[in-house]
Protein backbone atom coordinates (compact mmCIF):
# COMPACT_ATOMS: atom_id res chain seq x y z
CA UNK A 1 0.00 0.00 0.00
CA UNK A 2 1.37 3.44 -0.91
CA UNK A 3 2.35 5.93 1.78
CA UNK A 4 -0.34 8.37 0.68
CA UNK A 5 -3.12 5.82 1.07
CA UNK A 6 -1.74 4.75 4.46
CA UNK A 7 -1.71 8.37 5.64
CA UNK A 8 -5.24 8.83 4.31
CA UNK A 9 -6.52 5.84 6.31
CA UNK A 10 -5.12 7.22 9.56
CA UNK A 11 -6.54 10.66 8.71
CA UNK A 12 -10.00 9.25 7.98
CA UNK A 13 -10.03 7.25 11.22
CA UNK A 14 -8.96 10.25 13.30
CA UNK A 15 -11.44 12.46 11.44
CA UNK A 16 -14.32 10.12 12.26
CA UNK A 17 -13.36 10.06 15.95
CA UNK A 18 -13.00 13.85 16.09
CA UNK A 19 -16.32 14.36 14.32
CA UNK A 20 -18.16 11.94 16.64
CA UNK A 21 -16.75 13.72 19.70
CA UNK A 22 -17.34 17.23 18.27
CA UNK A 23 -13.61 17.94 18.45
CA UNK A 24 -13.01 18.74 14.79
CA UNK A 25 -11.71 22.29 15.36
CA UNK A 26 -9.35 21.48 18.22
CA UNK A 27 -8.06 18.34 16.49
CA UNK A 28 -7.40 20.33 13.32
CA UNK A 29 -5.47 22.96 15.32
CA UNK A 30 -3.36 20.25 16.93
CA UNK A 31 -2.62 18.62 13.58
CA UNK A 32 -1.65 21.96 12.04
CA UNK A 33 0.89 22.34 14.86
CA UNK A 34 2.14 18.77 14.31
CA UNK A 35 2.48 19.43 10.58
CA UNK A 36 4.59 22.51 11.36
CA UNK A 37 6.83 20.55 13.73
CA UNK A 38 7.38 17.75 11.23
CA UNK A 39 7.93 20.00 8.23
CA UNK A 40 10.32 22.38 10.03
CA UNK A 41 12.32 19.94 12.16
CA UNK A 42 14.38 17.51 10.09
CA UNK A 43 16.32 16.31 13.14
CA UNK A 44 13.11 15.16 14.81
CA UNK A 45 12.04 13.31 11.66
CA UNK A 46 15.46 11.69 11.35
CA UNK A 47 15.28 10.56 14.97
CA UNK A 48 11.83 9.00 14.49
CA UNK A 49 12.90 7.19 11.33
CA UNK A 50 16.28 6.00 12.61
CA UNK A 51 16.32 2.17 12.66
CA UNK A 52 18.59 1.92 15.72
CA UNK A 53 16.24 3.92 17.96
CA UNK A 54 13.77 1.58 19.67
CA UNK A 55 10.04 2.01 19.20
CA UNK A 56 9.68 2.49 22.96
CA UNK A 57 12.18 5.36 22.91
CA UNK A 58 10.39 6.97 19.96
CA UNK A 59 7.05 6.65 21.77
CA UNK A 60 8.54 8.18 24.92
CA UNK A 61 9.86 11.18 22.98
CA UNK A 62 6.55 11.65 21.15
CA UNK A 63 4.68 11.38 24.46
CA UNK A 64 6.87 14.10 25.98
CA UNK A 65 7.00 16.35 22.92
CA UNK A 66 3.25 16.26 22.40
CA UNK A 67 2.11 15.90 26.03
CA UNK A 68 -0.40 18.74 25.73
CA UNK A 69 -2.28 17.15 22.81
CA UNK A 70 -5.68 15.53 23.09
CA UNK A 71 -5.81 11.82 23.82
CA UNK A 72 -7.07 10.83 20.36
CA UNK A 73 -4.30 12.73 18.55
CA UNK A 74 -1.57 11.49 20.88
CA UNK A 75 -2.85 7.90 20.58
CA UNK A 76 -2.86 8.20 16.78
CA UNK A 77 0.78 9.35 16.82
CA UNK A 78 1.74 6.52 19.18
CA UNK A 79 -0.10 3.96 17.02
CA UNK A 80 1.66 5.25 13.91
CA UNK A 81 4.97 4.96 15.78
CA UNK A 82 4.15 1.38 16.83
CA UNK A 83 3.46 0.50 13.21
CA UNK A 84 6.62 2.23 11.92
CA UNK A 85 4.60 4.88 10.07
CA UNK A 86 6.17 8.06 11.47
CA UNK A 87 7.23 8.93 7.92
CA UNK A 88 3.61 9.69 6.97
CA UNK A 89 2.55 11.70 10.03
CA UNK A 90 2.90 14.99 8.17
CA UNK A 91 0.85 13.68 5.22
CA UNK A 92 -1.77 12.32 7.65
CA UNK A 93 -2.12 15.82 9.13
CA UNK A 94 -2.51 17.32 5.64
CA UNK A 95 -5.15 14.72 4.75
CA UNK A 96 -7.05 15.39 8.00
CA UNK A 97 -7.06 19.14 7.32
CA UNK A 98 -8.41 18.49 3.81
CA UNK A 99 -11.19 16.29 5.24
CA UNK A 100 -12.08 18.95 7.84
CA UNK A 101 -12.11 21.66 5.16
CA UNK A 102 -14.34 19.53 2.95
CA UNK A 103 -16.72 18.92 5.87
CA UNK A 104 -17.01 22.68 6.50
CA UNK A 105 -16.96 23.68 2.80
CA UNK A 106 -13.74 25.65 3.26
CA UNK A 107 -10.87 26.00 0.79
CA UNK A 108 -7.25 26.87 1.59
CA UNK A 109 -6.10 29.97 -0.30
CA UNK A 110 -2.67 31.55 -0.64
CA UNK A 111 -2.97 35.27 -1.33
CA UNK A 112 0.14 37.07 -2.57
CA UNK A 113 0.07 40.83 -2.08
CA UNK A 114 2.47 43.75 -1.65
CA UNK A 115 1.37 44.15 1.99
CA UNK A 116 -0.59 42.17 4.54
CA UNK A 117 -4.33 42.34 3.96
CA UNK A 118 -6.53 43.64 6.77
CA UNK A 119 -9.57 41.72 8.01
CA UNK A 120 -12.08 43.47 5.76
CA UNK A 121 -9.88 42.83 2.70
CA UNK A 122 -9.53 39.18 3.68
CA UNK A 123 -13.32 38.88 4.00
CA UNK A 124 -13.82 40.58 0.64
CA UNK A 125 -11.37 38.20 -1.07
CA UNK A 126 -13.00 35.22 0.66
CA UNK A 127 -16.53 36.17 -0.35
CA UNK A 128 -15.49 37.04 -3.92
CA UNK A 129 -13.60 33.81 -4.62
CA UNK A 130 -15.24 31.17 -2.40
CA UNK A 131 -18.23 30.82 -4.72
CA UNK A 132 -15.93 30.46 -7.74
CA UNK A 133 -14.43 27.30 -6.25
CA UNK A 134 -17.74 26.01 -4.88
CA UNK A 135 -16.99 26.62 -1.19
CA UNK A 136 -18.67 28.65 1.57
CA UNK A 137 -15.50 30.41 2.66
CA UNK A 138 -11.73 30.55 2.22
CA UNK A 139 -9.02 30.10 4.84
CA UNK A 140 -6.51 32.68 3.69
CA UNK A 141 -2.78 32.56 4.15
CA UNK A 142 -1.48 36.00 3.20
CA UNK A 143 2.04 36.04 1.75
CA UNK A 144 3.81 39.36 1.21
CA UNK A 145 5.42 39.41 -2.23
CA UNK A 146 6.85 42.72 -3.42
CA UNK A 147 7.10 41.45 -7.02
CA UNK A 148 3.30 41.62 -7.30
CA UNK A 149 3.60 45.47 -7.52
CA UNK A 150 -0.10 45.95 -6.74
CA UNK A 151 -3.34 43.98 -6.63
CA UNK A 152 -3.30 40.33 -5.56
CA UNK A 153 -2.45 36.90 -6.86
CA UNK A 154 -4.53 34.06 -5.42
CA UNK A 155 -3.81 30.32 -5.43
CA UNK A 156 -6.59 27.92 -4.44
CA UNK A 157 -5.57 24.30 -4.92
CA UNK A 158 -4.18 24.12 -8.44
CA UNK A 159 -5.97 27.26 -9.67
CA UNK A 160 -4.28 30.65 -9.86
CA UNK A 161 -6.20 33.91 -10.17
CA UNK A 162 -3.83 36.71 -11.11
CA UNK A 163 -5.16 40.21 -10.52
CA UNK A 164 -1.74 41.65 -9.83
CA UNK A 165 -0.20 44.59 -11.66
CA UNK A 166 2.84 42.48 -12.55
CA UNK A 167 0.55 39.79 -14.01
CA UNK A 168 -1.35 42.36 -16.08
CA UNK A 169 1.94 43.80 -17.36
CA UNK A 170 3.15 40.32 -18.35
CA UNK A 171 -0.10 39.61 -20.21
CA UNK A 172 0.09 42.99 -21.95
CA UNK A 173 3.71 42.32 -22.96
CA UNK A 174 2.77 38.92 -24.45
CA UNK A 175 -0.14 40.48 -26.31
CA UNK A 176 2.00 43.26 -27.77
CA UNK A 177 4.88 40.99 -28.75
CA UNK A 178 2.68 38.50 -30.43
From TrEMBL:
Gene3D superfamilies: N-terminal domain of the delta subunit of the F1F0-ATP synthase. Keywords: ATP synthesis, Cell membrane, CF(1), Hydrogen ion transport, Hydrolase, Ion transport, Membrane, Transport. Pfam families: OSCP (PF00213). GO terms for molecular function: hydrolase activity; proton-transporting ATP synthase activity, rotational mechanism. It is a peripheral membrane protein. It is found in: Cell membrane; Membrane. InterPro entries: ATP_synth_OSCP/delta_N_sf, ATPase_OSCP/d_CS, ATPase_OSCP/dsu. The keyword Hydrolase applies. GO terms for cellular component: plasma membrane; proton-transporting ATP synthase complex. PANTHER family: ATP SYNTHASE DELTA CHAIN. F(1)F(0) ATP synthase produces ATP from ADP in the presence of a proton or sodium gradient. F-type ATPases consist of two structural domains, F(1) containing the extramembraneous catalytic core and F(0) containing the membrane proton channel, linked together by a central stalk and a peripheral stalk. During catalysis, ATP synthesis in the catalytic domain of F(1) is coupled via a rotary mechanism of the central stalk subunits to proton translocation. This protein is part of the stalk that links CF(0) to CF(1). It either transmits conformational changes from CF(0) to CF(1) or is implicated in proton conduction. Belongs to the ATPase delta chain family. This is ATP synthase subunit delta. The lineage of its organism: Bacteria, Bacillati, Bacillota, Bacilli, Bacillales. The gene is atpH.
Amino acid sequence: MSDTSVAKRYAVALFQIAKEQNLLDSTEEELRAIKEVFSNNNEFQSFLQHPKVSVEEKKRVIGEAFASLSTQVKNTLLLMTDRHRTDVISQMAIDFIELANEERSVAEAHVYSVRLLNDSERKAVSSAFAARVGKRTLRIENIVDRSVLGGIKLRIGNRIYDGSVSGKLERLEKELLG
